[in-house]
Specification:
The chain is an all-alpha fold. Helix 2 runs antiparallel to helix 8 and helix 5 runs parallel beside helix 7.
């Protein structure tokens, strides 16, 4: 491993450390709730490793019953995670030069937090495999470990609301969105996404606000995107016309906690 590769991996881990720490109480809470719903700790670990989507996993717990309503679970989780299509499309050209295995592992462990950090990094310099793996894989490992510990600890953990830990991810996402504020047209995109998500949540509830916020954000970005002859594009195409990089509609339209 070269010095540059090691430096990139360290940079990735440094950037993901705050979201990683914020995920700890949420992971513990999910594990405790899951065993309360009848899941075995091994099943909790397997779900976190294969699904790796906190919002979808919490949604499953809300629907968990005997027998399990497979159709409702598939529909709700699919709707919540539909934003990954947009996130993956945005990230694809930035990791196109990665080795195939790294790309597959990278998208398998993609989450809102490491996606947003990767987009922010790509505005400053090209993404490298070392940076992406150094950021994404520890975040996945952290979620699997602490949801499993939560399942093993069960009711001993108590309610994280007592110490305000339930607000950790909300604060984190506010910070991530704020990181895009310097991007062209970011304010309008974020405002459109947040407004649509809030209205949908008030009108029809979860999980429709996720898709509504993402759709509104993308629509606003496309409508506000500069024309092909805009001098800003010629100066910096990575920052000028990317309809998703101008803001994260998935984050702005998301109120569930997730890794």
């Amino acid at each position: 491993m070269t010095a540059d590769t090691l430096a990139e991996a360290r940079a990735g881990f440094r950037d993901i450390l705050p979201p990683l720490l914020a995920a700890v109480p949420i992971g513990l809470l999910f594990g405790a709730l899951a065993v309360g719903r009848g899941l075995h700790p091994a099943e909790v670990a397997l779900m976190s490793a294969l699904v790796f989507a906190g919002g979808a996993q919490f949604a499953v717990l809300d629907l968990w019953a005997a027998p399990v309503p497979i159709g409702a679970v598939a529909f709700s989780t699919g709707l919540i995670n539909a934003r990954h299509l947009l996130m993956g499309a945005s990230l694809a050209p930035k990791i196109a030069g990665f080795p195939r295995l790294v790309r597959l592992v990278g998208v398998a462990v993609m989450a809102d937090e490491n996606w947003a950090l990767a987009e922010r990094r790509a505005r400053e310099r090209p993404l490298t495999p070392a940076y992406w793996i150094g950021m994404a894989v520890p975040f996945w490992v952290n979620w699997v470990v602490f949801t499993t510990l939560g399942a093993l600890a069960g009711s001993f953990l108590g309610d994280p609301k007592r110490i305000g830990a339930d607000f950790a991810f909300t604060a984190l996402f506010i910070g991530l969105v704020a990181g895009f504020r310097a991007a062209p047209r970011a304010g309008a995109v974020i405002a459109a996404s947040a407004a649509a998500a809030a209205l949908a949540h008030l009108a029809v509830g979860s999980p429709w606000h996720v898709v509504s916020g993402a759709t509104a954000g993308i629509a606003a970005a496309v409508l506000l995107a500069p024309a092909a002859g805009d001098p800003a594009i010629a100066g910096n195409p990575a920052q000028a016309g990317d309809p998703v990089q101008a803001g994260n509609p998935a984050i702005a339209g998301k109120t569930e906690v997730r890794p």
